[in-house]
Amino acid sequence: MKSVRVDDFQPRHFKWEVADRVATITLNRPERKNPLTFDSYGELCETFRALRYAHEINAVVLTGAGGNFCSGGDVHEIIGPMTRASTVEVLEFARLTGDVIKAMLACPQVVIAAVDGVCAGAGALLSLASDFRFATQRSKTSYLFARVGLAGCDMGACAMLPRLIGQGRAAELLYTGRAMTGDEGERWGFFNQLCEPEALLAHAQARASEFAHGPHFAHSMTKKMLQQEWNMSIDQAIEAEAQAQTICMRTEDFARAYRAFVAKEKPQFQGN
Fold it and tell me: Which superfamily does 6-212 belong to?
């Protein structure tokens, strides 16, 4: 089976750290509130695709440097060139941005977004595609496409956001482009929890470590089923979950958990 080692990851367009089976990706252009470029889109896509085969990494934290998460696509490096590009070139770029989201959803690791300050445009989609979102009261999440003459249906927003916060609330954010505050995001179920700014990253990494040392194979199955069952009937979902749970019951982790329970010990999950 193909395997990717931690040392194989050498990103140039964001900061990459691995500790305790948790990878931390930090968008690292704080002077511009961490905007994305053509290169960083491509590198994020390649990284999340490769994580499928990175067996030393069991969870991922995605964050931004300097008190902001991500301000979206770089105005000068992306938005400007797109106004001069051909239709084919624009479509290629739009598909690349969507590929980042698909790669995040497809990677088996739990992905946690630690969101502080500005979280706009494509940055808001990166947080949306994460499995968990921790934020601060000062965070401002905006799907600001309408404010620059674009539709809100970008990178899967119209499919994913209503499922998370409801159709009416999603419509308000996508039509107006206004910022959702941290308090609103927590109240609406977008954010799992609010933290103090100075404690945000440590909290996200601690939660990621819990998942990394838990039944991470089973977590990957939960992630897959949460996505696949969007398009299933209840009957189909029940059958799919029966099959998924059968696979989990055939793992050594399941047997280890039983033996640990009998021995009154904490199970040591190994992902097999």
Answer: 2-enoyl-CoA Hydratase; Chain A, domain 1 (3.90.226.10)
